[in-house]
Amino acid sequence: MKRSRVNEIIREGDAFIRSFGYIMPPFAYWTPEELKSRRPAGIVDSRLGWDITDYGQGKFDELGLFLFTVRNGSAADLSRGRGMLYAEKIMITRQRQLSPMHRHNVKAEDIINRGGGKLVLELFMPDEAGNIDRHREVEVPTDGVIRKLPAGGLLKLDPGESVTLLPGVWHAFWAEGADVLIGEVSTVNDDLTDNVFVDPIGRFSSIEEDEAALHLLVSDYDRFIDGKA
Ligand SMILES: [Fe+2]
Questions:
Q1: Which of 46, 49, 65, 219 could form a disulfide with 72 if both were Cys (CB 3.0 to 4.6 A apart)?
Q2: How many Å separate Cα 23 from the centre of its chain?
């Protein structure tokens, strides 16, 4: 994906998020240079910030997601069992834009429709090996109430509704009727290791640099801030 397109998606996403009265934290608006010179560990090492992904496939409009990680705890706290064990993201899924089927090993996540259209999730339970179970009935908590669906059933969430996805539950999602602002409240998040996709795809975009970055993406940090390949 071209950097100019990423910049455009950031501008559009910021306006969409603000239209619901949600405002991102100050570091969202730091320039790449400011982030590099200040380099707060609580932002860079916790991998907070912008995350515009086309899953490495170069067709963002059909396969992609806008994410911004607002807060994230630490793996060390998680293994200790106390401390900052949680994370929060704000996301946008567009109409006709798929977030592909995946599951997590560690992360439990509440996926919340914060406004816009309907959020549609396709769900499967895992089999004993962790693979998709194409027969087992799906059982998920939705705002405290257990909802049962056939394997591969579609759960449709209206604004205000949410679902709790425990580790192992397979999910893909998209928007229906209008773009959707999604909240995610979860266990500590590690996007480098904790996403298992059904299809062999990436988690991040590969960027073609055709103009200067408006803001760095989390996936830019290693290279732009820490000088790693
Ligand atoms: Fe997920």
A1: 46
A2: 17
Centroid of ligand 1 to alpha carbon of 103 (angstroms): 6
**pLDDT tens for residues 60-98?**
999 999 999 999 999 999 999 999 999 999 999 999 999
Q: Based on DSSP, count helices (H) and strands (E) in the chain, helices before strands.
A: 5, 12
| C-alpha to C-alpha distance for 134 and 179, rounded to whole angstroms | 29
| CB count in 10 Å sphere of residue 206 | 11
CA of 211 to the centre of ligand 1 (A): 31
- Cα–Cα distance between 202 and 219 in angstroms, integer? 12
Global pTM reads 0.95
Instruction: Copy the structure tokens of residue 134.
Output: 């194409």
Cα 16 to averaged position of ligand 1 atoms, centre (Å): 22
Query: What distance in Å separates the CA atoms of residue 73 and residue 186, rounded to the nearest whole number?
Result: 10
CA of 225 to the centre of ligand 1 (A): 27
List pLDDT tens digits, range 140-186. 999 999 999 999 999 999 999 999 999 999 999 999 999 999 999 99
pLDDT at 200 over 90: no
Distance between Cα 184 and ligand 1 center (Å): 9
CA of 155 to the centre of ligand 1 (A): 15
CA 24–ligand 1 middle distance (angstroms): 21
Measure the CA–CA gap between 61 and 185, rounded to whole angstroms.
Answer: 25
Helix, strand, coil tally for the chain in percent (to 5): 20, 40, 40
- For residue 37, the CA-to-ligand 1 centroid distance in Å is 32
Ligand 1 center–CA 34 separation, angstroms: 31
